[in-house]
Each structure stands twice: as C-alpha cells, then as structure tokens.
Amino acid sequence: MGEFLDSLPSSIISCTNIGSLNKAKKIDDLSYSDVAKCFMYARRSSIHTQPLPTSPKEIKKALCILNDARCYEMNTFFKGYMHLHEDIPDSILDAIRTQCVNLDCKTAFQYQMQAFNVLCNEIRAKSSAITLNHKLCNSSYLLKLRQILPAMKYVPKVSIKQCHFRFIGTLSSDPAFNQRVFVASISFRNNGQRALTLKVTQIQIILDGVKTESKSFQGSGDSYRLIQGESIDLDLSIKEVTQPNFTEFQQILVITINEVLKVFVTFFVLSPKQRLFQQRFPSCMVLKVVNSPLGVYTSPLMLQIFKHVLILKKGLSSPAVMHLMMDKSTHYRSQNRETMLEVLRIKKLLQEQLDLSKVLDHFWSSFQGIERVPIERRYKLPPSSAQPHGYSPAADSPAFGVSMGYDYLFPNRQTWLPDCLINAPPEVSMGLILLWLADMDENIFEAPLGTGDPIAYFVNMPAHRRGVILWILDLCCALIHNSAKNGATGRGLALTFTNILMRKTAAFKAAGLGAPDGTLPDTTVYFIGSSFLSEVEKRQSGVTIFLHWLKIYAYRYERAL
Known about the structure:
- The structure is a single chain.
- This protein is of the alpha+beta class.
- It folds into 2 domains: 2-66 and 276-560, no CATH class; 71-270, Immunoglobulins (Immunoglobulin-like, Sandwich).
- It contains 21 helices and 13 strands.
- The protein has helices spanning 2-6, 10-16, 32-47, 56-67, 71-81, 90-101, 105-127, 140-148, 175-181, 301-312, 319-322, 333-353, 356-365, 419-422, 426-439, 454-459, 463-481, 483-486, 490-501, 504-510, 529-560; strands spanning 158-161, 164-168, 183-190, 196-207, 210-212, 217-218, 223-226, 231-238, 248-257, 261-270, 286-290, 297-300, 384-385.
- The strands form 3 sheets. Strands 2, 4, 5, 7, 9 and 10 form a 6-stranded mixed beta sheet that branches. The protein has a 4-stranded antiparallel beta sheet with strand order 1-3-8-6, covered by helices on one side. The chain has a 3-stranded mixed beta sheet with strand order 12-11-13.
- Strand 4 and strand 5 (210-212) form a beta hairpin.
- The longest helix is centred in the last third of the chain and has 32 residues, at 529-560.
- The radius of gyration is 25 Å and the shape is globular.
- The model is unreliable at 505-530 (pLDDT under 50).
C-alpha cells in the first residue's frame, strides 16, 4: 500500500480519503491561540464571511463583470506599447509571447485587437485633449500609457487579419515539406488616407525554453510601405531546420507601424510527443471549447478527452463518481482505494498506448474530402465541444435534433482512443481527471486569496488559468444538475477541487521553507507557526472563492438549459 500511495499526489490521497490516518507529529510552535485560529478559519469558511450571492440581481451583476474579464490580457499588451521608440525589454516580450501561445490563436488575436484599438483611440483622444472611459479595461497600466503617448493629428487606420499561429507536428528533414506545412500569412491593409510604413523591429526565438539566435525562422522582408487602400501579406515559414528534434518552437515578431503602433505576431510549433500527465502550458495543447452554457473558454486537450469519456459512460449521474469527492470519501475508503489503483493502472497503459499524433490524425481523417483541404490544416488543433456529439449539456444520454456541427469538433465519434480508457468505469475517468489536475505543473491559486473578492480574483487571473477554472465549473454544474441521481453537493465539489488545485510546493516556497537546492519538506513537522496558519487560511479562502464562482456560474448554467 505504501508504494501505491507514493504514486499519488498528497491532494488526491486526502480528497479520496485512501490514506491511513496517523497521529500528527508535535508542532512545538503551534500555540493554543493558533489552534483556535484554525477552527475560526474553518468556521468562517462554513458560514461564509463573504456571503454567497443569492438574488438574481447580484448574480447578474457579477456575471456582467466576469463576462468582460480581459483586463489582465490587455495590460500585458499595454506594457509593450509603453516602449514607443525603443526595443521592448525581453521580460515584457516573454510575457506577451507566453500569454499568446497559452491560448488558442483566435482568442489571443481577439485580446490583442481590443488592446490595439484602445491604443489607437487613446492617441486620437490625446490630440483632441479628450479623456476616454474604456469599459473593457481602465487599469493603472492604461493610465501610465496615456502619460507617455504622443499627440498625433493623424493615426494610421489599418486592418489586420490573424497574427497568431500554432502548429502541432514534427519538423521534417525536407525543407520543402516544412515550408508547405509550417507556414503563416499576416495581412495588413491601409484603410487610412495617408501612406504608412510597416517594419519588423524585433524577433525573439525560444527553443525548448531557451532563447536562441537561430535563423531557421524567417519573414519575407524587413520594411514595407503601403499607400491608401493597399494591402500586403507577410509570409512566414520555417525554412532551415538546425535543431529538428525540439519539443517547443516559439517565435514572436514585433511589427511597428509608423514607429508608434506595435503589432505582435507569434508562431508556435509544438511536438505531439508530449507526456500525458504532469503537463504545463503551453505543451498541454490548449483547445477552444464551445457549446457550453458557461460560454466559450479554453481547455487542455487531455481534460477534454477524459470529460467526453466520463459523459459517454454516464458519469454525470453516477454515485460512484461522487464517492471520490471530499464530502463523501470518508465512507468509501476501500472502494476509493480500488478505484485509484485502477486509475494508476490505466494511467500507465495510457502512457504506453496513447499517441496524441495518432488521435489527431484519426480526427482529421474522419472528414469527407480532407484530401482537398490544405495540408497545414491537419497540423493545427481543432475546436472542441463541451460535451460529446449528440449530447445536450448535463445529459447522460444522446438527444435527437443536435446540430451535426458537433461532429466537426474534437473529439468526434471517429477519434481513436485506447480501449483501456473507453472501457473504464466512470469513477475511473473522474479519478483520471483529478489526477491530471493534481499533477498539472501550474499554480492556479497562486495569489493571496484573502486579499480580494472572488470576482476580482477571477478577473485578474490569466486567461489560460481562467479556462481551467471554467472547465472545472462546467463539469461541476453538470454534476450538480444531476445531484438527485449522483448525490453531488456544491460544497463537496468546492472542497475537492480547491484542494486539488492548491499546490503544496507553492505553499512551502511562499513560507520560505525548503533546502537551498530547492527540495521541499514532505511532512508538516516543518510547516509550523504562522506558515501553518497561513496555509489553513489560504485553503479556507480558496473554498469560499470557489463556492462563489460555482454559485454564479451554476445560475448561468441552469438558465441556459
């Protein structure tokens, strides 16, 4: 049993209650007052010092704020815009590149264009001595940007088509093949009355996390002049492969318009040969998820696969699935041990059998006339559906009259998946979801949770992390909708997923604990005094915040059904 438990994250062991309860070691620095505070934090979470929104008016107000959650992303671009007549520092370029490759291409482009339009409007307003009030984002970074922007009587009017590109594939030793597949085109059109100049001012290349001066990636020129009504396509491709065995190739270009306006272009090639668990962004292959009552969001590919299998096995109405949750697991320790043993067995088989390139190839090959589609399309990630083809949200059985467009969303009925996953019972699919989230190399809850309200915390979270939260909330809302069958409770789900998303590593580092080489203590005997109390308070605050989100989005979910 020891080896079995050693193979699981501590958060999984505590949630599913499969570990043996041992007497806690003495913590000398924990006083009676500290223990009293721990109980106070627990009670506070139970009665909600921050009351959950109850009236439709409160919830609708919160949803309006959440629907416009894009301030974090726009601020990232604002930081780049502040460097008008100089190169953007690498740290800011890194932040912009990371933000764009962690999202699907269309979402990243949408955020950038919103920030770009704000920049253009601010320059026009400054020349007219007008102060604008932007509904999308009124942040401190925008205020700083206003102070340094020049007053220009004429601001270029330019339309831009897609400037973020992502490919899933392995480079070939044949340069002609690479130029045919890993190719992108950015379109600029001058809609103004005066000529404008485009110039590539900065290029940054990252290979497997290491900055390189490789010239393997090239644009089709350096500087361009467009007269009124003229347009141009800048073609980008990988032409010469100097390091063909990379896992991640990331490229960002800065294109300056008339030396003031800046456009950021990213080109990302990701190898499909990724580990299935312990993933991080962007190697987890982010998909755009549609057809959800919560709206459009992004999600890692493996989570979508596990969720579809869970729904197909009638997991949304399965009581055994809820036995893994923190509020019920105490009564099902033996059963949960068997479930998690099977989860580890399936995990090992998946690591041996599941080839993501084969999965994606089967998906694209299922389309009629795929041979007539440009070859580069097969090297891109498809959009995904929140539920399988033929299923309505929260449904455990297929329904009639569902749009045929679902079959063009990943994974469809023809997508190949290993038998060990398809034939697994629903509680094993849920166990795989919990294990994948617990193993994820990403700190979802990394800011001080108790300092702000749940809505502000969500809005100021990076979009790719919001996507993970929305994916979880979508699943939780479907489980709660079926609570009469499965016994789901909002608090049980909040306790479980908060515990899964909290990172022990981050908590220890925040407390300044651990060895100089970066290793961290494994037992709570080192986690003492105020650091212990701060961890307790942080976790209780996390539960309260998650309950707020669940209450708000469950209202939206039920209204959309």
